[in-house]
Amino acid sequence: MTNKQFQELSFSEKARWLYFNGHMVTSIRYYKHKINLYELESLLIEVFYNHAEDRVDRIEILDTKSKRMQFYADQVKLPVDLTH
Questions:
Q1: N-terminal to C-terminal alpha carbon distance within the chain
Q2: Quick check: is 83 in a domain?
Q3: How confident is the model at residue 7 (pLDDT cuts 50, 70, 90)?
Q4: 47, part of any domain
Q5: How is 35-77 classified by DSSP, letter by letter?
Q6: Is residue 14 one of the residues assigned to a domain?
Q7: Is the pLDDT of residue 79 over 70?
Q8: Range of the domain at 54
Q9: What span, in angstroms and rounded, lies between the C-alpha atoms of 45 and 1?
Q10: Which of 18, 68, 63 is CA-nearest to residue 40?
Q11: Fewer CB within 10 Å, N side or C side of the chain?
Q12: pLDDT of 82 above 90
């Protein structure tokens, strides 16, 4: 699956793809969310779970320029091309 193909899926289709085909890598706490990081084929996907609202707010491809990258890098070995 490509970035474009994943982005074109509906919210429920993204959730379904991750459930059946994804592999959870790790999770972090970030402000009001618990973010689960999944590997889906060659993509890294973040699932933003809001505890206060008891719902998933967003499912999106990992932005490698995000400040969250350091939180993930502290927990797992990310490919070199993602950390530079």
A1: 24
A2: no
A3: very high
A4: yes
A5: EEEEEETTEEEEEEEETTTTEEEEEEE--TTSTTHHHHHHHS-
A6: yes
A7: no
A8: 3-77
A9: 12
A10: 18
A11: C
A12: no
